[in-house]
Design goal:
Distance between the termini: 69 Å
Strand order of the largest sheet: 11-8-7-6-9-10-13-12
Largest sheet: 8 strands, mixed
CATH class of the largest domain: Alpha Beta
CATH superfamily of the largest domain: Ribonuclease H-like superfamily/Ribonuclease H
Helix content: 40-55%
Number of helices: 24
Shape: elongated
Mean pLDDT: 90
CATH architecture of the largest domain: 2-Layer Sandwich
C-alpha cells in the first residue's frame, strides 16, 4: 500500500489517493470516493507492506479514518531493507536491486506527485492518470523489493513466506494498462479559505502590511511586498537603510519578516563561539514544533543561517523603535498550511495559489522573483495575525513565529493601551475602564518597584529619572513584559502610561487585533492647570513636561488608533472612551457597578 498526499506534513496535509495491491490486482481510492473497498481490504488482510509507512502512510491513514482495522503484521520495507544493507529511498533501492518498474513515469517523484494533484483539481484528467500510474508502480515495485530482501535474509521458508513470490503477479500487473475508471474531471471551486472569506469585517481587511523575504546579506536583494488590503505590489530591496526608508514612507500597520527574529533560549549571540552553544543548541522551540508537525525548517543558528538571523534581529529592532510592530513569519510553513505549493515547485504554481487565495497585483502577469512571491506570503501571514487567526509558536525568552491557523475564529478579550502627555487624563481614562471590568496595570508601578530596589522613594521626578534609566539599560520590551506580569492572563486589560513608540509595537505584536491604542490629549494650558492643582513640590510643569521620558509622546499620538480630546467633564471622558472601545471591539462594555 502507498499513500499520496498534498505534502509531507501529517499535521496539515491531506491524502489525495491511496493505492494497494492484493491477490495480484492493483486498486486505488481517490480522495472524495467511497473508501469501503480500501477499508475492507485492510481489515481482511493478514499482513500490510509499506515503504516508510511507519512514519508516513499509517500516520495519514489514522488521521483520515481514525482507529481503523489494520493487519496485525506490518512490514515496513524501509527498515527491513536496512537489515540486508540496503538504504535510501524506495527508488534508490530499486536501482540497486536492478528492479525495472517505472516505464512511463521515470521522471516523477513525491514532489511531482503533489503537483499532479494540483493539476487534476484544476481540470486536468491526464494529470490524475499519471499520478495513479506513479502510485501503482510504487506499490507493485514493493512486491519485487520484498522478494529480493527475503532472499538476502536467507530465512527458513516455512517460518516466512512458504515459497510465495510476489513478483510473479506484480510483473503482469505492471505491464497492463490502468484497469480503472478514473473520476470525472474536477475543477477548482471557489474555496471557503479566501482572503475575503477569512478577513472580511476584521482589522486585516483593509490593513497595509509590508512583507519581507529577507536575505542574509545587504548585497543580495530581498523580496519586498506592500499588501494593501488584498492588493500586492512587489519589488526587491538591498540595503537595510533603503528598506527602512521605504517602510517609514509606507507607514504600514505591520511588518512581517521571513527571518528568525530571536535566539534560542539561553543563547547570547548567533555565532558558534557563544558559551551556551553546546548546552542550548541551534534550534528554537518554534522550529522543533514545525519539525514535529512535518514541516521542513532550518534551525535559526545553523551556520548558513547565522548571518540572516543576525540581520533579521537588527532590522526588527530598528523598525520597532519607530513604533511599527514586527512579526516573524515563515512563508514555507504558511504555504504548506494554506495548501499552496512552495516556490521550489515553480513560480507558476505559487502565483496560481496566491491568486486563488484572493491576492491580486502585477505579480499575476509580470515577471517577479521567487523572493517577491515569498514576500507576498509573508504579508498574508500578517493578515492572519491582524484578524486573530494565527498561532504563535515560541519558547521562554524566544520571540514568536506566527503561522496561519485556519481553524481559529479569532481571539477574545481586549487590551487597551493609553498614552498621553502629563495631566492629559490618561490615568483617569484607564481607571474609568477599570470600573468597567478591565484589569488595571501601569508602567509606573514597575518603575516604583525598581525605585524601591534602589532604596529610594517613588515620586514624579524619581519615576522619570529611573524610567529613563530602565529604558536605556533593560529596554522597553523588558518593561512591557513586567507590566503584563502584573495582570497575568486576564482577558480584558488596560495599560496606563505608554511613553515610547516601542510600547505600541510591543503590544500589537503580543495581542494583534486585540490591542487598542488610545491617546488622550488636552491643550497645554489645561494640562498645566491640572498639574498645579495636584503638584506637591517637585519640578515645575514645564520641567516635568520636557523630561526625556516624555520626549516621544508626540510620536505615540500618531501611532494611536484613536484620540480623545479631554477638555470636558469626567462623564464626557468616560462616554468617549467607552464608545471607542465598544466600536473597536464590537461589543458592549458592562456598566460600572453602583459601588464603583
Amino acid at each position: 500500500m502507498d499513500v499520496e498526499t498534498t505534502g509531507l506534513s501529517w499535521f496539515y496535509d491531506e491524502i489525495t489517493l491511496i493505492g494497494w495491491a492484493r491477490n495480484g490486482e492493483y486498486h486505488v481510492n481517490v480522495a472524495g470516493e467511497d473508501p469501503s473497498d480500501l477499508l475492507d481490504a485492510l481489515a481482511g488482510a493478514r499482513t500490510l507492506v509499506t515503504f516508510n509507512g511507519t512514519l508516513f502512510d499509517l500516520r495519514f491513514l489514522r488521521k483520515k479514518f481514525g482507529q481503523i482495522s489494520l493487519p496485525s503484521v506490518h512490514i515496513d520495507l524501509r527498515y527491513l531493507s536496512k537489515r540486508v544493507g540496503l538504504s535510501g529511498g524506495q527508488k534508490a533501492i530499486e536501482d540497486e536491486l536492478g528492479i525495472s518498474a517505472r516505464s512511463g513515469v521515470e521522471g516523477l517523484d513525491g514532489a511531482a506527485a503533489v503537483l499532479l494533484w494540483h493539476e487534476f483539481v484544476r481540470g486536468d484528467i491526464e494529470a490524475l492518470r499519471r499520478l495513479v500510474d506513479y502510485n501503482r508502480r510504487d506499490v507493485l515495485a514493493m512486491c519485487m523489493i520484498l522478494d529480493r530482501v527475503v532472499d538476502r535474509l536467507n530465512v527458513q521458508q516455512d517460518l516466512w513466506l512458504k515459497d510465495s513470490r510476489f513478483e510473479d503477479w506484480a510483473r503482469p500487473a505492471l505491464d497492463q494498462d490502468l484497469p480503472l475508471q478514473l473520476p470525472a474531471v474536477r475543477t477548482v471551486q471557489v474555496k471557503a479559505r479566501t482572503f475575503k472569506a477569512l478577513f472580511a469585517g476584521t482589522h486585516a481587511e483593509k490593513a497595509k502590511i509590508v512583507g519581507i523575504d529577507l536575505t542574509g546579506s545587504e548585497k543580495r536583494p530581498s523580496g519586498y511586498c506592500v499588501l494593501d488590503g488584498d492588493v500586492a505590489v512587489t519589488s526587491t530591496i538591498g540595503p537595510d537603510a533603503e528598506m527602512l526608508a521605504r517602510i517609514l514612507e509606507e507607514k504600514p500597520d505591520l511588518v512581517s519578516i521571513d527571518s528568525p527574529l530571536s535566539l534560542p533560549e539561553g543563547r547570547l549571540w548567533v555565532s558558534d563561539d557563544d558559551p551556551g552553544r553546546d548546552q542550548f543548541g541551534i534550534m528554537r522551540r518554534c522550529e522543533r514544533e514545525l519539525k514535529r508537525r512535518g514541516i521542513n525548517v532550518y534551525p535559526s543558528l545553523l551556520p548558513s543561517m547565522q548571518k540572516l538571523t543576525e540581520r533579521g534581529i537588527r532590522l526588527a529592532e530598528t523598525i520597532r523603535r519607530h513604533g511599527i510592530p514586527v512579526i516573524e513569519s515563515y512563508p514555507g510553513a504558511a504555504q504548506d498550511i494554506m495548501g499552496i505549493p512552495r516556490k521550489g515547485a515553480g513560480e507558476r504554481y505559487l502565483k496560481q495559489g496566491l491568486a486563488e487565495f484572493g491576492i491580486s497585483g502585477g505579480f499575476e502577469t509580470q515577471a517577479v522573483t521567487h523572493d517577491e512571491l515569498d514576500a507576498i506570503t509573508s504579508a498574508v501571514v500578517g493578515s492572519f495575525f491582524l484578524s486573530g487567526q494565527f498561532e504563535a509558536l515560541s519558547g521562554p525568552t524566544e520571540g514568536a513565529l506566527i503561522i496561519p491557523d485556519l481553524k481559529s475564529n479569532g481571539s477574545s478579550g481586549l487590551v487597551v493601551g493609553i498614552s498621553g502627555r502629563i495631566c492629559a487624563g490618561k490615568t483617569t481614562t484607564a481607571r474609568l475602564l477599570e470600573r468597567r471590568g478591565f484589569a488595571y496595570t501601569r508602567f509606573s508601578l514597575v518603575i516604583d518597584d525598581e525605585i524601591r530596589s534602589l532604596g529610594e522613594t517613588p515620586d514624579r521626578a524619581t519615576r522619570q529619572r529611573v524610567g529613563e534609566a530602565v529604558h536605556e539599560t533593560k529596554g522597553q520590551r523588558w518593561l512591557c513584559e513586567r507590566v503584563l506580569d502584573r495582570v497575568a492572563e486576564k482577558p480584558f486589560i488596560v495599560v496606563d502610561g505608554l511613553r515610547f513608540p516601542e510600547d505600541h509595537a510591543f503590544f500589537v505584536e503580543r495581542f494583534g487585533s486585540r490591542f487598542l491604542h488610545l491617546h488622550v490629549d488636552a491643550p497645554t494650558a489645561v494640562r498645566e492647570h491640572r498639574y498645579e492643582e495636584i503638584a506637591e513640590g517637585g519640578p515645575s510643569f514645564g520641567d516635568a513636561d520636557r523630561q526625556p521620558v516624555e520626549a516621544e509622546i508626540g510620536q505615540l499620538s500618531n501611532l494611536a488608533m484613536a484620540t480623545i480630546d479631554n477638555v470636558g467633564s469626567i462623564r464626557e471622558l468616560e462616554d468617549a472612551a467607552v464608545r471607542l472601545v465598544s466600536e473597536y471591539s464590537q461589543q458592549e462594555l458592562p456598566c460600572p457597578s453602583p459601588s464603583s
